[in-house]
From TrEMBL:
Matching InterPro entries: ABC-2_transporter-like
Organism: Paenibacillus germinis
Keywords tagged on the record: Membrane, Transmembrane, Transmembrane helix
PANTHER family, A to Z: INTEGRAL MEMBRANE TRANSPORT PROTEIN, SLR0610 PROTEIN-RELATED
Protein name: ABC-2 type transport system permease protein
Transmembrane intervals: 21-49, 55-74, 114-134, 146-172, 200-223, 229-247
Origin organism lineage: Bacteria, Bacillati, Bacillota, Bacilli, Bacillales
Any one Pfam family match given in the protein's UniProt record, by short name: ABC2_membrane_6
């Protein structure tokens, strides 16, 4: 029932957004240029200097693509979780509390938008990377369904991180700076191999904010054949554990919520 209701609310939100077609297409084009520029800068550096600590351009391309698609899925299916602060500051969360649906479900379906640019570019990056890696014999066709699984678990982990950060707003109210660290900065860092960073930062990206499990840890198994199947199973376990903890934290915060609106 909750899934069916969620889909109905998502469709209604998307129909509302699509009434402004120019804004939709303009934002899609601009997002495409931004992401293409970001990756091209990295690609040009790697083409000039070669491998970075043993990681090839195609392996980094794979990491980048997985992170991009996982983030796009999270932001598409739970858009306004990332924007909870504005609901807390304005008091608009009170309106969601009066709806006959769970607050989180109502929040997730507000202002939904399909991130075609991010998903499309992520797929292109993965196609280029996996085609080259298959040609070199580094991976086989079994990597395709495993990549889909990795993307799904990655989206769950990113949602859990976003939800836990948003829930902190019930105590802090202003969480933009916190989100810059737990979501924006950490996700940008995890587009590249964690082995590039000092040990303390690697630990933070695997334990405190587990974005390393979105792409780096499963990629070690899939592309580099390190750690065995336990790397992949561990990633699945982390995704569900992170989701469970984030949901508990959300419920705790919501139970202590006091309106800040006028």
């Amino acid at each position: 029932m909750s899934v069916r209701l969620y889909m109905l609310l998502i469709k209604a939100s998307l129909r509302s957004r699509m009434q402004y077609k120019f804004n939709f297409f303009f934002s899609t084009v601009m997002a495409s240029f931004v992401h293409i520029s970001e990756f091209l800068m990295v690609a040009l550096v790697m083409m000039r200097f070669g491998n970075i600590k043993g990681w090839t351009l195609y392996e980094v391309c794979y990491l980048y693509g997985v992170m991009m698609i996982s983030k796009a899925i999270y932001r598409t299916l739970a858009s306004d979780v990332h924007h909870l602060e504005k609901y807390l500051v304005s008091g608009d969360l009170d309106a969601l509390l009066t709806r006959p649906v769970p607050v989180l479900l109502a929040l997730m379906t507000q202002n939904s938008r399909l991130l075609f640019a991010e998903v499309g570019q992520g797929i292109i990056l993965l196609f280029i990377a996996m085609k080259a890696l298959m040609a070199d014999g580094q991976i086989g066709w079994s990597a395709v369904p495993l990549t889909v699984l990795i993307i799904m678990t990655g989206a769950i982990i990113l949602f859990a991180i976003g939800l836990a950060t948003a829930a902190a707003g019930f105590w802090l109210t202003r969480i933009e700076s916190l989100q810059n660290m737990t979501e924006d900065a950490s996700q940008t860092a995890a587009r590249y191999p964690l082995s590039l960073y000092p040990k303390w930062l690697q630990g933070a990206l695997l334990v405190l904010v587990p974005v390393g499990f979105v792409n780096y840890i499963p990629t070690l198994y899939l592309l580099r054949h390190q750690g065995g199947i336990g790397m992949l199973l561990g990633t699945i376990a982390v995704s569900f554990a992170a989701l469970w903890l984030a949901m508990r934290f959300w419920k705790l915060g919501l139970s202590r919520y006091q309106s800040t609106g006028s």
